[in-house]
Write a structure and sequence with these properties.
globular; 7 strands; two-stranded antiparallel ribbon; 33% helix; Rossmann fold; five-stranded parallel beta sheet; alpha/beta
Length: 132
């Protein structure tokens, strides 16, 4: 499976990319929502899942999800954030409410790395361990 991983924090981006690769998936990274949009607009871009941070200085996660929705791209998407709220045009909105129009989008706390594994579990093949 090909996963687009988006986060402006280089340490989290690198550690999450390694975790996803360890699960057997191919990872493409972007350090902002706008960089992720450019990757999605490429003609040969095809992603099976997206994992994105919510708060980023250049294009946030919700804008990325809105782009997917506007272009009828129902790529399973995990939005993670340290915050439970989203501020848009001065209005503070609970993240779960902000995501309601997007049935393919899920929310998880950034503090729980296991959410990534849980999100990708249906797409992960079991790893067989060779006998010693």
């Amino acid at each position: 499976m090909k996963v687009l991983l988006v986060d402006d924090n280089t340490l989290l981006l690198a550690s999450d990319a390694l975790r996803i690769e360890d699960l057997g998936h191919q990872v493409v990274t972007a350090m902002s929502g706008s960089a992720a949009l450019e990757l999605l607009k490429e003609e040969d871009a095809s992603f099976d899942a997206i994992i994105t941070d919510m708060q980023m200085p250049e294009g946030d996660g919700l804008s990325l999800i809105e782009y997917l929705n506007a272009n009828a791209l129902t790529i399973p998407t995990l939005l993670h954030s340290a915050d439970d709220f989203y501020c848009k045009e001065g209005e503070i909105i609970p993240l779960e409410k902000a995501l309601k129009p997007f049935p393919f989008a899920h929310y998880a706390s950034k503090a729980a790395a296991r959410h990534i594994e849980h999100f990708l579990a249906p797409y992960t093949l079991p790893i067989s361990v060779a006998a010693q």
